[in-house]
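fwd from M.: "can u put these together and see what the complex looks like"

so here's what she sent:
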Amino acid sequence: MNKRFPQPAVFGFLLPNFLGFLVFTLLPIGLSLYMAFTNWSLRPQVGLEFVGLRNFQRLLGIRQVAAAPQIPAGWYILAGVVLLAGLVGYLWANVAHWAGTKIGGTVMAAVGVVTVSASAATAPSQGLILAGLIALVCGLASMLSGRSPHVAAQREGNAWRPGAGTIPALLVAAAALVLWRTNAAVWSAHAPRDERFWQYFYNTVYLMLGIPVSILGSLGLALLLSNALPTGSAGRRMGGAALCLLGGGVTLALMWLGGMPDLGVVGGLLWLMAALGLAFNVVSFRTIYYLPTFTAGVALMILWKAIYNTKTGPINVAIAALGDWLGFSWAGPNWLGSTAWAKPSLMIMGVWTAIGGTNMLLYLAALSNVPQDLLDAAEVDGAGRWARFRHVVWPQLAPTTFFISVMSIIGGLQGGFEQARVMTQGGPAGSTTTLSYYVYLKLFQDLDLGYASAISWILFAFIFVATILNWRFGKGLEVEL
Amino acid sequence: MAEVVLERVTKVFEGNVVAVNALDLVIRDREFVVLVGPSGCGKSTTLRMVAGLEETTEGVIRIGDRVVNRVAPKDRDIAMVFQNYALYPHMSVYRNLAFGLSLRRTPKAEIDRRVREAASILGIEPLLGRKPRALSGGQRQRVAVGRAIVRQPAAFLFDEPLSNLDAKLRVEMRAELKRLHHRLQTTTLYVTHDQEEAMTLGDRIVVMKDGIVQQVGGPLDVYNRPVNRFVAGFLGTPPMNFFAGKLVRRGDGLWFDEGSGAFRLSAAQAEAVGEWAGREAVLGVRPEAMSLSAEGRFAGSDNALPVRLGVVEPLGEKMDLYASTQRHPHIVARVDAAEGLSGGRDAELRIDLSRVHVFAPGEQGENLSVPDGRA
């Protein structure tokens, strides 16, 4: 028997899986990559042609809309070099744990605040505001990523270099300023060729702002639900549950007879939840919070569409009722129908769906894996609840947080299709169209398969880069928080 | 530095499991006391109650002159070392040591001084910048001990700190802990299931079983005068041999009749257990109180036990003999090594009758030959 090389039979067992991958995954991927370089269209009158990079030029290119001023190329090169130096130095400063980033960062952030407020107070000069904002952002970044002094204290020689870590941030700020001054005129003379693509990219990223909220929410829920509630002995729990069920029935009946069946149902459900909580403790709440995840997504969206209804949705009805009661004439926002509220509406729904979902389960699992000894040691060491969370639990959760963040960012970049399709048709005015819905529109509305493929591949590139950046820089930063 | 006092301390877990039952114990200032017993005997629970990590169901715990039953662990002025080190994995050794101090808002310079002092005591200065995962087991345990001493608490609590180390390292760390205690003179309560560790470390040892203290005393005191059969069997390796038999009066002496042999008890013992004459009893004989030779303290004609030899384990200077009689299949004797001895043949074991114990029958029968055994 040759141990090093597997027998042919081994390959035989692998073959079905491999064939499936070949036919259903690799082939379509290859085909779509090819399509991205063609003008493939579902219109019968368009003949298939290889068009090279034309789709990508249309997607990412810029066009001139006015006469552009002449700028010496040296300025661009200088700004580029400074920017690069700043970025490299910034990463380096963090990797090398340079001391003093906090002090320097504070100074820079203060400079930024002063600049912004001064320029806003006198003449709203855009340049100054922008410079101030950049200084503010760089300052905050170097402050947050700066290591605390006791790491510095243990280093040999007790080196303390105030603000050393800020120099790279300063470089980035300077370069950005130069680029902005030189480039403003050039910028305004040009426009992207496919403005919708960039608008939808912005929409996608905007909708992703709900992700940190939902991750924090999941963590909060997991913390709440990780320990059993003190509900007393079995007999008392069951008795309490029975009383709660009775209370629910009575509430429902009274409200129904009193002509308020809706409130009756809501009240009855609250009593039912209390009963379940008493009977099954945290398990019942975990299940309830997980419900949205094993409900069909489209059904939830139809439900939320009804909730957001301007006239009959419970939110606006409640707002109007509250207004009546207080003596105001209040009208709720036009949730899904206005450009101002459409995106927040979708974000609220997204957070609601994700908060008790798989992320909560992952956090619950991670919390149960935190060694009790570590918590005990911290307690003896003098850590209160918050210190134990910050110094023991949170670092132990870092891998989970990292994983959840990566998966959420990937999901966020890909997401938004169902909401747009079911709830808003991407509107109003394209404000809820995301990149994935744009792919769909290009394909099924404009029948432009080639262009849709090109968008998909650009989207893939974004996700790929975001994930690589996450892996490279996300891990180290998490642990130190 | 402080005295730790436990008065009628009781712990009842959910479902009416009594883990610790009315435990009385005084750990004097600067004393090193070891709680020892088989797993589940309540020793760790006791320690955790002193630390404040478990609530005390009943009884009073005092540290110094303060009743600490309602005091949070961080305010009890104690430091604890855990079995699996419990180092904060994401912090460097320096931060691990400094953590408790910085939570107490100690000035930075003071923290630095104390951390470096603790590190030099334990010889871990070169490791200060490392993360725990880059350390060996022994180094981790040193850091864990360092984390305790850096706080300069009134009392140290150790929860089986050496049981995760390999045998060689365990012996080394044991000696080091003893040196450390000599140097710092901090009141220490130490929990272990290893009787050897208990004997070597403790100024006094507390033997526990089923949540009840069996005996408290100096290591040799407990070893030489165990109050009952459990304590006698728990301390010492190989463990004490127990022979069930009967006390009988023959002529002017009191004899213990094993079945295949009978031994005449010494005059002192005969006096102590005289009133048990004619009743069932258990004779306890330590392996080293037996010999193949019939010379010196083993001399005499009324102390021979005919046995069949089983396995012979040469240890160097000594050797362990596993032997059996008709009624007692498992007898261990530690005798002077003799070449050419092999198992499977008959021999006569001589017993040093001045060092045997007579116990009342039963698993926990009291030691009748020790004056306060019945207390």
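replying to her w this: The first helix of chain B runs from residue 43 to 51.
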